[in-house]
């Protein structure tokens, strides 16, 4: 059975859980307590030297990066609805996976890590940097959703799961962009049972 080392407070972990749950793929969750610095323990570093979550182990396959895990699961389990085979749709999915990882992800970390999880030790300059960057990125996301329900068309894909996990994370800092297009899309994502199953139990 698949083993997933994860934390429900990690947006990268939650996107993988969302897909596993949506696709009905059996897995064993192994919770890594980030607050207790368990991700830096010798035991976990032996599993993932990057000291981050998630890590997926499937037989002799070990993958650390969340978007790579999403692709792997889709290809192994023939989840064409989530990772379209049509080249133009696949290109859209790939583009938004990379946009999330290269642009939105660091912005989310700047804001949420330093506002919420670091408390009084948070980097105020990082918060300012992230807040300014989000003002640039939110309209890009909103404009993409102007004439479509999901990032790659009429149905959700792993790109939506990936980006939505970051938008949810912004909610910890009350920083979800106020944009009706994003709000409507995020409501559709929230309605997915797999997305709901990935959320931390508050």
Give the topology, please.
Layout: E1 2-6, H1 11-23, E2 27-31, H2 42-45, E3 55-58, E4 61-63, H3 66-76, H4 87-117, H5 124-144, H6 158-170, H7 180-190, H8 193-198
Parallel strand pairs: 1-2
Antiparallel strand pairs: 1-3, 3-4
Task: Walk me through what this model shows.
37% of the residues are buried. The chain folds into two domains: 2-76, Glutaredoxin, CATH 3.40.30; 87-192, Up-down Bundle (Glutathione S-transferase Yfyf (Class Pi), Chain A, domain 2). The chain has eight helices and four strands. The chain has helices spanning 11-23, 42-45, 66-76, 87-117, 124-144, 158-170, 180-190, 193-198, and strands at residues 2-6, 27-31, 55-58, 61-63. It has a four-stranded mixed beta sheet with strand order 2-1-3-4, with helices on one face. With 202 residues, the chain is α+β, with helices and mostly antiparallel strands. Helix 1 packs parallel to helix 3 (66-76), helix 4 runs antiparallel to helix 5 (124-144) and helix 4 (87-117) runs parallel beside helix 6 (158-170).
């Amino acid at each position: 059975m698949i083993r997933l080392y994860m934390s429900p407070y990690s947006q990268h972990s939650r996107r993988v859980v969302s897909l596993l749950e949506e696709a009905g793929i059996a897995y064993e969750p192994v919770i890594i307590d980030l607050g207790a610095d368990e991700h830096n323990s010798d035991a976990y570093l032996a599993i993932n030297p990057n000291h981050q979550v998630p890590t997926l182990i499937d037989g002799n396959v070990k993958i650390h990066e969340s978007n790579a895990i999403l692709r792997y699961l889709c290809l192994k389990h023939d989840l064409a609805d989530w990772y379209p085979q049509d080249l133009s749709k696949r290109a859209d999915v790939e583009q938004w996976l990379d946009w999330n990882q290269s642009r939105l992800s660091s912005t989310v970390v700047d804001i949420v890590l330093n506002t919420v999880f670091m408390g009084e030790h948070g980097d105020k300059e990082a918060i300012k940097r992230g807040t300014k960057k989000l003002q640039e990125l939110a309209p890009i996301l909103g404009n993409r959703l102007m004439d479509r329900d999901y990032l790659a068309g009429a149905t959700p894909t792993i790109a939506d799961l990936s980006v939505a996990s970051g938008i949810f994370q912004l909610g910890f800092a009350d920083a979800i962009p106020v944009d009706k297009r994003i709000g409507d899309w995020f409501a559709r994502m929230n309605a997915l049972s797999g997305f709901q199953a990935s959320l931390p139990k508050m």
